[in-house]
Every structure is written in C-alpha cells, then in structure tokens.
Design goal:
The chain has 367 residues and is α/β, with parallel strands linked by helices. It folds into two domains: 197 residues, Medium-chain alcohol dehydrogenases, catalytic domain (Quinone Oxidoreductase, Chain A, domain 1); 138 residues, Rossmann fold, CATH 3.40.50. Helix content is 25%, strand content 26%. The protein is built from eleven helices and 17 strands. Strands 3, 4, 5, 8, 9, 16 and 17 form a seven-stranded mixed beta sheet that branches. Helix 11 links the parallel strand 16 and strand 17. The radius of gyration is 20 Å and the shape is globular. The model has no long low-confidence stretch (mean pLDDT 95).
C-alpha cells in the first residue's frame, strides 16, 4: 500500500545569495511532483556540507579571493558575481531548497519508472549527469532542489538503493564526503605501504579520505587541529601533524621512511599549499577538491617540473564512484563519523556550528 502524500511540507528555503538570513523556514511549501524519469523521496535525514554554504554565499565566483571564514559563511561576501556563483560558474535560480546528502524512502514514481521502486530505501547521488560533457552537469541542491525538506525529487538513476542497518542520520554522513574523497583518491591512487597526506583530516571529506586510503592499504599523515588528534588517529591515521605547523615539510620528514609522501589528498589549499607540494616525492600525485583556507596559492614550480609531479582537480565524479561508496557501506568497510544532529527548523544553527569547525566528521539535519 502506498502512503498518502500531502500537498505541503516543511522546508528550509534559500531565498538568495548572502548570509544565514537567506535561509527561511516554511511549514507549507508545496510538495514536489515526480516528473518523467523521477522518483519522489520522503526524506529522513540530510547532511550539511561546504557546498551548501559555498552556493548560498556565492563563494564559488572567482571574484571571492578568501577562504570560507566563519564571518563570510555566516554573513556572505561583498565581492560576489551572482552570474557565476556555483561550482560550475553559473547562476542559481532562487528560491532554492539546498541539501545534497539526502537519505529516505521512495514514495512515488514518475512516468517511465517502475512502481516496484516504491518503498526502497535510497541515498541520493548529487551529480546530475546530463550528457557526456561535464560542463553540462548540474548538482542536486544547487541546480535542482535538494534534501532540506520533508520531500524531494531525484532522477531515478540518482536514487541508489542501500541495504544497511545504519540509521538515516548515519547514512547521511556519507554521500558528498565519501564521493568527494573517493574521487580524489582515484587520482592519487594510493598503493599499499605508501604514505598519503590528508588535509582537513577532521572534517567530513578528511575523515572519509582517511578511511578510504587505509582501505587501500596505504598509510596516512593527517593534518588537523591538535585538539582533534586522538579522534583522527582512532579513524586510522598513522601520524598527525598539527594544522598550525610552521614547518610541514620538516614534520613529514620526521615521520615517513623517505621523508616525503607519495600523495596528497587536499581540501584546504591556502598558505600551506607550497609546503604540501614541497613534501611530495618524485612522481608524487596531488588531488584537490576544495580550498577552504583560500583559493589563491603559491608554490615552487621547480617541485612540479623536476619531481615529475601529477596535479589533479577533482570535482565531477562518474556514477560508479557513488555506487562504490554504497558498496563499501553495505560491506561495512567504512563507518559514519557523526558529530551532531539538528532538526530541520534549526538549519541556521547547524550551519553556524558547521562554520565553527569545532567537531569531527559530519553534522546532519534530521527531517
């Protein structure tokens, strides 16, 4: 028996670019309809991510030169270019329901989707892969409404069935963080016994990267706040370097047998970028999916040239990456790192806590 679907729902709606005041809670927002090829999902939980804040504040526009600061994330930026305000350099259509980490159950299907999908427990893959050219791709919660609401729609191929004893809240820690980390790790390609530097190691992507690197048999040097070292080490990190170090190269030289690392999985960028590159061995591989400490960096070009380094930007991921992450979850190869939960009505408070970075892993909205 299918459940009755209401006409309206609770939703947190982003009304424009700017600060936290652009998030408006509604109790009577229209429930979306599943169009052709879509499914309608009753959302159980949805994780918080940097992309939610980056899109709301238009940090992606190249006119913004700073990293995501507490003040910038809460209050917005003055120098934005709204016409180039998403990861893909395009405008956002407002109002928009954000939230890219939704978990729930399919309650209705659109034309062309078999009714036997109703009742499936699913995790949503956020990449809207419209064709082979990644420039045409969109992202769920950015170019289409996402999961910060009681109901959402998704293309049927993006609603991936999951069979797990984990709760919706626990599952909502995985999608964006682990897909992002897995995308970078495929570029870095850690081999058993190699040493990989993971920056931002206490955050959602960092805690995912530690687990995924260890899954491949490599060793991890984790860059994180000293107060979080014990928890990060418990996830599998083999060595910790405090993020406020003034000699990253020297610290790594005292840790690994070669004095260098074979790879870097980076979401931080900023002032330490040059030292990250300086700590890499000949033939080392670097991948980045973010620059929370700042997008404009400097480094010694000789390191790239004379050490034959590989540099990879990593944003768009093929569907197989998400399916692999779900497989890792179902096999118990990875575990959730849940810091806190907030009700949907308190998304503003959740994002404020997210910006403070006084936590390990993920903050999740329970719908």
């Amino acid at each position: 028996m299918t459940e009755a679907i209401p006409q309206t729902m609770r939703a947190m709606v982003t009304t424009g670019h700017g600060g936290l005041d652009k998030l408006t809670f509604h109790e009577d927002w229209p429930v979306p309809k599943a169009g052709p090829g879509d499914v309608l999902i009753k959302v159980g939980a949805c994780g918080c991510n940097n992309t939610d804040i980056n899109t709301r504040t238009a940090w992606y526009s190249d006119s913004v030169k700073s990293g995501i600061t507490t003040d910038g994330g809460a209050g917005g930026f003055d120098e934005i270019r709204p016409e180039a305000a998403t990861w893909g350099g395009v405008a956002v259509d407002f109002p928009r329901i954000q939230g890219a980490d939704a978990v729930g159950r399919i309650v209705a299907v659109g034309a062309g989707v078999t009714a036997d999908r109703i009742g499936e427990r699913v995790m949503v893959d956020g990449w809207l892969r419209t064709g082979d050219d990644i420039e045409d791709w969109g992202y769920w919660g950015s170019e289409a409404d996402g999961g910060f609401a009681e109901y959402c729609t998704s293309p049927t191929e993006n609603a991936v069935k999951v069979e797990s004893a984990l709760s919706d809240v626990e599952l909502a820690t995985f999608m964006v963080a682990f897909s992002t980390a897995e995308g970078m790790i495929r570029h870095v390609d850690p081999k058993p016994g190699e040493w990989i530097l993971v920056t931002g190691a206490s955050g959602g992507v960092g805690t995912a990267a530690i687990q995924l690197v260890k899954r491949r048999g490599a060793r991890v040097v984790a860059l994180c706040g000293a107060s979080k070292a014990d928890e990060v080490r418990a996830l599998g990190a083999d060595a910790i370097v405090p993020r406020d170090t003034d000699d990253l190269v020297g610290a790594i030289a005292g840790i690994t047998p070669s004095g260098q690392v074979e790879g870097v999985v980076d979401v931080v960028g900023g002032p330490l970028f040059g030292a990250m590159i300086g700590a890499m061995c000949t033939g080392g591989r670097y991948a980045s999916s973010g620059a929370i400490a700042g997008p404009e960096v400097s480094f010694n070009l000789r390191h790239l040239v004379y050490r034959d380094l590989e540099f990879h930007g990593s944003t768009c991921t093929p569907a197989e990456v998400f399916h692999d992450v779900v497989r890792y979850i179902e096999a118990g190869d990875v575990r959730p790192v849940l810091s806190a939960t907030f009700p949907l009505e308190e998304l503003v408070q959740a994002q404020a806590a997210f910006l403070e970075k006084n936590y390990i892993g993920k903050i999740v909205i329970e719908i």
